[in-house]
Amino acid sequence: MISYLINLMFDNILLSLIIVCTFLYYYTTSTYDTWRKLNVPYAKPVPIFGNIFKMFTGLEHQVDAFGRIYQQFPNEKFCGFYQMSTPFLMIRDPELINTMIIKDFSYFTDHGIDMNPSVNVMARSLFFATGQKWKIMRQKLSPGFTSGKLKGTHEQIRECSDQLTNCIHDKSKETDGIEVYELVGNLATDVIGTCAFGMKLDTINNDNSSFRQNVKKVFKPSGKVIFLQILGVLFPKIIKILKLQTSPVDVNAINFFHSVFREVIEYRTKNDVVRNDLTQTLMKARQDLVISSDYKGEEKYCELDIIANAMLLFTAGSETVTATASFCFYELALHKDIQDRLRAEIISSKIKYGGQLNNEFLEDLHYADMVLDGN
């Protein structure tokens, strides 16, 4: 009798596994004829994973995975591939890409990242916004990035750079090695803080700055988030229905920046402080879209939309600069000939423009542009 029950239980488990596997197979392969029907050249997918098995299992970086697919079709303007069951179109032709991001950009505004604003405040920022709401917000924030306003930041950047130079000089007396990533991260945090938000953070001289620590936390991944991201790739509808958090955003960090930027905006409003910076652009957007707006429904804006964009511009701006500069310094350390040539250009240009950090000086650094671009 016991043996019969064990066999019956085993059969039921086996049957359940077969049913689940069969469901997964048909669920994930039901779209695999999409590109064939549309006569689009595509990478041959495998059941369940599509074309991202190695990426999914951590055997291949995302950049390498997409690069591999890109290289399979050297003579095609575009190609198709599958991320699990979802068909994606990869554009390869430079002229077509140029048309899409300039002439026809109004049709390609979304980044394809579906985030719920009620779950994650960052979903309200420009990078994650979609459709008409994205278009309106972009129009309001664009004035904050004019060439005139960027030129006006040179003196503030110079002050931060001088602080960095002094910091390196002091640290070199204490140690033979300096953590470049942390040092550049502190510089980027100070530069964005003072240029964009009028805040003197002094992160360069304070490694434990709350700003720098919270910037690191904002997009720090966790096991739970990775699991939910995998679940989101397999079953995106479930994630949407349950309103699960799939992006690695630390709640405490979000609350920190939310409080800081709200205080900055409130202080300037109360004391009638006007500066030609990004915060002023955000405050103008707040006046137009939140206080004096008649937008309704999905296009209606609130205070969180303004705060979210302040948080995005601060955190994303500092981390992208930090990563780019750190990799650049690493490569320069490996190639001293390039390092020497770059130093020579900077020194000669500095003499040419009387030691001034201005727009003409920066535009004359042609070799520096090539180094940063990886050319």
Q: Which key phrases capture this entry?
A:
globular, Cyt_P450_E_grp-II, mainly alpha, endoplasmic reticulum, 63% helix, 375 residues, Cyt_P450_sf, Cyt_P450, 3% strand
What features would you describe in this structure?
The chain has helices at 2-29, 34-37, 53-56, 62-71, 94-103, 131-141, 147-151, 154-174, 180-197, 210-218, 223-234, 236-242, 251-271, 278-291, 303-334, 336-352, 359-363, 366-373, and strands at residues 78-83, 86-91. With 375 residues, it is mainly alpha-helical. The model has no long low-confidence stretch (mean pLDDT 83). Helix 9 (180-197) runs antiparallel to helix 15. Strands 1-2 form a two-stranded antiparallel ribbon. It is globular. The chain crosses the membrane at residues 6-27. Keywords: Endoplasmic reticulum, Heme, Iron, Membrane, Metal-binding, Microsome, Monooxygenase, Oxidoreductase, Transmembrane, Transmembrane helix. Its cofactor is heme.
